[in-house]
Amino acid sequence: MRTVIPIPKINLFFLIFFFAFFCSVYAQDTLPSDFKDIPKQKQIKVKLKYEKNCEDNLLSECSKAAYEEAIRAAVKKGTDKFADDFLSKDNPLKLKLTKDKIRPYLTGTIVGEPAFSDDDWEADSFKLEIRAVVEVRMSDDLIQEVCKITEPEGHDTIPPTGEITKIRDSYIQGDTIAYTIRADDNSALKKMTFMVKDSSVKRTWDINGKSVTHNASFSTKNWKLGSYAYSLLIEDGAGNLKACNGNFTLVRNVKGTLQGTLNIHCDPPARIFIDGTDTGKTTPAEGIKLTCGKYQIKLVASGNPEYRTREAEVDIKMNQTTQLIVIGNKTVQIND
């Protein structure tokens, strides 16, 4: 006599690893060309014989347990077959993986109702044969988990560092904005890109080496008034990224608004550079109009080796005159 037992659906979890090649910030959902024919899920037909020792157990309970255990065994066989099919492929990364590592990240489910036959008693054992279709699906965590398992030894995961300096909080419409960008990496830099959103400003540098500094500028002539966001994206040779961001505001050029005056007196006389830009002026210089904020002043006395280059930072205040006095290597700043 055969007993009809409700058949529960059993889920097991496994991992498959053939997406390891696209562990990058640029292509995390793209299969390598060699594996595009491998489905993300697959139905596998399973047939197996199962025997349960029922000694010292109630026969009804033992037979019911035998059906349930047979279903679990069928799901395991289906998911193992799925993993074995891929591990048999000619792929060098498979040497780093085993079936035990990939099992926890696959899901196997019985599709439809399994068929049982030869389910009968023999001495103290209950024997049966099960035929079933097992659907195997890959986990949502496939890419991240595979990257951890298959990541090459010594792979560089340390992101680069960097910064943008000299860009102030506000400028007058039409100003030229000078800036300095710096990048460093523990191994090798690849490139960095500076851009200002909602403008045509975008500049990319290809880099060789561990450290780099660039000075550059852009004009805001004919730009609209308002706030602008700028960013610097740094990439190293291993694909690690570092982003730096900031904002500045363009205001209307109203006489006396958000401006101050700078006077410079220097002994010996020197050529004046402001934020890295040659002003074409030499000291003494008075009445230099600047938007409020901090500036790096460099004084270059080409004919005097002892005091060839001197630097100072000044803070320009609205409607005020700032006096910068440099004698030898001593610097004094006075705000009227």
UniProtKB/TrEMBL annotation:
Keywords, A to Z, come to: Signal
Which Pfam families does the entry link to? PEGA
Which superkingdom, per the lineage? Bacteria
Domain PEGA as annotated: residue spans = 261-325
* Signal sequence extent: 1-27
Q: Which InterPro entries match?
A: PEGA
Does the entry feature the keyword Signal, yes or no?
yes
Upper taxonomic lineage: Bacteria, Pseudomonadati, Thermodesulfobacteriota, Desulfobacteria, Desulfobacterales
What protein name is recorded for this chain?
PEGA domain-containing protein
